[in-house]
Structures are given as structure tokens and as C-alpha cells.
Write a structure and sequence with these properties.
Helix content: 25-40%
Number of helices: 13
Oligomer: single chain
Strand content: 15-25%
Shape: elongated
Length: about 450
């Protein structure tokens, strides 16, 4: 169909004698001799007003078309005398594609709760809030690729099916062709236990050892029975890996990526960000702009613990002590109250970090870093990877994992090992930061959480 997107119509520089648009009716108001019909096609937040006279209405059989109906409008694009709108269409022809029964269509001109809209996830992209959220998701994803492409990173695709547990946590979904109750793993499709991946990191490391700079951007899975607003069973991860790089290089990369995506979204999604600033999270726009105005703070884990111990009035639920894993309340205090900007915490205790992180000379900490941001807490977690074969083998043994599962990963340290580093960024948490949306279920079109496998 030859049609013009509403976003392009609204950006027109001059009137157009003949134009065709398509969309879903948001509102319809009938007057004596004509109707005002506002439509939206998802290309932008704004609606386009169409003026349809009574004769055109009769010819088009528009009488039954109300909120939710899909229509095509042809006519003249003319300046609008109404406030807050530059253009309107004076319709000369109307075509109705599909009606929406006003008695049963669940999206009416009123505010709906997020809980209600999660139950109709197939329809919520038609609302202002979720249309804006998913446009921001699209632009943020584009910005991620743009950032890495400009720095000569190769986008690589790592397996979703895996025979190893990258994190060592064991919270993985099992994939099998065996009948229920059949425990003969050797008769299964891969002749061994198979799971959905929690991370593409290990394979990305292998690719970085040949390509130099790589990143993954795809779905990952975690069978964590958690119903918090921050966790989902299926989520997207951005995982760069760099050969010939150390922790300092990694911190620079992480900060650069966040700042690039924020700047891109503020530029390309101004109206959508404004919506969230007004109705979801007051001060969001200022907070995002503030991220671009000064460098991220940096502090060691030990320094961060000292700050938290000195925060006598913070009333933390989780007591602070050296060696603990920072909780969200601690992370947010550092970013929101103490530094009042994003902060990178580095050099964490070895005992709370994964086997692949490079041990520091003090034998107590590893070259790990987390990026903490206001409103979210941890956004990015990464490390310089352990490139010494003997140290890595010892760490795998300490954690009781089977070295045979990582034979190929260990080979990377046997043949031309180099200092290298990488991180993982949860894309949905990035979107929560960009929109002020507090629940991860509302930045994923069709969220997968415990007990929820609809759509």
C-alpha cells in the first residue's frame, strides 16, 4: 500500500494536495456536518487529526468505526487551526479495514493500570505509554549496534543451547527430547544435559581471541523463581569482549556505551521521553541529561563499603560489611545519594564473583567492575578475564565445577592467551533507566516470568 507514515506527515514542510495515511482510531468526535477522527499508526507518539465531512462519512460507511478500528484516510494535508497541531487531513475518502466493537474493545479513552495491560499484552502497544516504551526500545537497540560498529566490534551470534553453566549458579532451563520421567540423558538429543544459555560470554571470549573485538546482543534465560520487578526468565543481554584489554579499558567502554545510548534516545525519542517524564517518573529527563554532563564516578569496592558504613542515617535493611555482595539499596545509595551520578565500583572480593574473573595480586579481590546508576542500581557487570591457565584451573576446582566442561575454554589460555575483558549489560534494565518504568515486565513486549507464559 502506498501510504505516508504519520511521523513523516507531521514533519512535512508544506501542504500536500493528495496524501494517504493508515492507522487505528484513537478518538472520534461527531459534529453536525462532520467528524473529527484522530488516528495513530505507531510511528510516533502524536495522533493525526482527520476532518471527515458528512458526505464522505456516508460514502465510507464509517458510522460503526470507533476507538480501535483500523482505517485508511485519503485527502489533502492542510495547516490545522487547532492548538498543538501543525497539520490535519481534510478527508475525501475513507476505507475501513477492521472494526473494533466498543462494547468489548478493552482499550478505551481512560487510564488503565499496568497490571490490567499486562493481561492484554497483545493490545498494549496501541497505548501511548507502551507505544513510547517500545519505540525507545527500538532506538536504544539501534544505538547499541551503532556504538559498537563505530569501534570496529564484530556482532557475533552465540548459542542459545548450551552444555555448560557460565555463571555456575545452576538456575537454568533444561531442554530435552526425552519423555517425561525418562532420565536416560545419554539417549537424549545431545547425549548430555542441555540448557538454555544464561550468557554468551564464554563463546564470545573464544570469538574475541580471533576477531579481537566482538559483542553479542540477544536473548538469555534464567530459571530463577523470582517475582521481583527486576527479574524475568527471558531477557536480552549485550555482552562485548575485547582482546588485549584490561579493567581500565573495560570501564571506559561501559561508560561510553551508556552515554551514547542516552544521548541517542534523548535526541531521537524526545516526545516519548517527555511522556515518561510527565506521567511516569518526574525528573527523568533531567536525570538522563545529567548523565551526559560529567564523567561517571569511580571507586573501589573497599572504598564503597567505607562510604556505606559511614552512612549512619541510611537505615539499610541489609547490614554492611566487607565481603558482602552489594544489594540494590546499597547500589542506589551510592549512585543517588552519595555521588548523585552513575558510579563504577571495581575490584570486588573474589569469593562473591565468578570463576572467570582475573585474580588481583592481593589474592582477595578480582578485577571486576559494576556500573551503578540512579533509579536502577546495577546496570552493568563485568571483569578482566582470567588469562592464566593455572589460576583459572585452580578457581574452577575451588568452586567444585567440572574442568572437562570447559576444556575448550581452557584451550584459550593454552594457545596464545592474552589479557582480555568484557561485561554484560541487561538491555531491559537499560530501558528501565531510559523510561523510568519500575517493572521489567513493562519494557518487554511479552514478558516471561514465573507462572506466566501467555502470548
Amino acid at each position: 500500500m502506498r501510504r505516508t507514515l504519520i511521523v513523516d506527515v507531521l514533519n512535512s514542510e508544506s501542504p500536500v494536495e493528495s496524501i494517504t495515511v493508515c492507522g487505528w482510531i484513537r478518538t472520534r468526535r461527531d459534529a453536525r456536518d462532520f467528524s473529527f477522527v484522530e488516528i495513530n499508526d505507531g510511528s510516533c507518539l502524536a495522533n493525526l487529526q482527520c476532518i471527515v465531512d458528512r458526505g464522505t462519512l456516508a460514502d465510507a460507511s464509517l458510522g460503526q468505526a470507533s476507538t480501535g478500528a483500523a482505517i485508511e484516510v485519503g485527502g489533502e494535508l492542510a495547516p490545522s487551526p487547532g492548538k498543538g497541531q501543525k497539520w490535519e487531513i481534510k478527508a475525501s475518502e475513507i476505507r475501513v479495514f477492521g472494526l473494533a466493537d466498543p462494547e468489548t474493545f478493552p482499550l478505551q479513552k481512560k487510564r488503565h493500570t499496568d497490571e490490567f495491560l499486562r493481561g492484554i499484552a497483545h493490545l498494549r502497544p496501541r497505548t501511548n505509554k507502551y507505544g513510547a516504551a517500545f519505540r525507545i526500545r527500538s532506538e536504544a537497540g539501534y544505538a547499541v549496534h551503532e556504538f559498537f560498529h563505530a569501534r570496529h566490534f564484530a556482532w557475533v551470534h552465540t548459542p542459545l543451547l548450551t552444555g555448560s553453566d557460565c555463571e555456575g549458579a545452576g538456575e537454568m532451563f533444561r531442554v530435552t527430547t526425552l519423555a517425561p520421567g525418562d532420565k536416560n540423558v545419554e539417549a537424549d538429543f545431545f547425549n548430555k544435559t542441555c540448557s538454555l544459555t544464561v550468557s554468551g560470554q564464554l563463546e564470545a571470549e573464544a570469538l574475541a581471541m580471533g576477531l579481537g573485538r566482538v559483542y553479542t546482543f540477544g536473548p538469555t534465560f534464567r530459571a530463577e523463581n523470582s517475582n521481583t520487578p527486576r527479574h524475568a526468565a527471558e531477557f536480552w543481554m549485550i555482552e562485548p569482549e575485547m582482546a588485549f584489554a584490561d579493567l581500565e579499558d573495560l570501564m571506559e567502554l561501559a561508560e561510553g556505551l551508556v552515554r551514547h545510548v542516552v544521548a541517542h534516545v534523548l535526541d531521537k525519542c524526545a516526545a516519548d521521553v517527555e511522556l515518561f517524564d510527565r506521567f511516569v517518573d518526574k525528573g527523568l529527563k533531567d536525570r538522563l541529561q545529567h548523565m551526559l554532563q560529567q564523567p561517571f564516578a569511580r571507586i573501589s569496592y573497599t572504598g564503597a563499603i567505607d562510604i556505606l558504613l559511614a552512612a549512619k542515617d541510611a537505615n539499610f535493611v541489609y547490614p554492611v560489611k566487607w565481603g558482602m555482595d552489594l544489594q540494590t539499596e546499597h547500589e542506589r545509595y551510592l549512585a543517588e545519594e552519595h555521588f548523585k551520578r552513575p558510579v563504577i565500583v571495581h575490584d570486588y572480593p573474589k569469593e562473591i564473583k565468578a570463576f572467570y574473573m582475573r585474580a588481583n595480586d592481593d589474592r582477595e579481590t578480582v578485577a571486576a567492575m559494576d556500573v551503578l546508576v540512579p533509579g536502577i542500581g546495577e546496570l552493568i557487570g563485568g571483569s578482566q578475564r582470567e588469562d592464566r591457565l593455572d589460576v583459572l584451573e585452580g578457581r574452577i576446582g575451588e568452586l567444585g565445577q567440572n574442568p572437562d566442561d570447559y576444556w575448550w575454554y581452557l584451550d584459550l589460555r593454552r594457545y596464545g592467551s592474552v589479557p582480555h575483558a568484557g561485561f554484560g549489560l541487561g538491555f531491559e534494565r537499560l530501558l528501565m533507566m531510559l523510561t523510568g518504568i519500575a517493572n521489567i515486565r513493562d519494557v518487554i513486549p511479552f514478558p516471561r516470568t514465573p507462572g506466566s507464559l501467555e502470548f
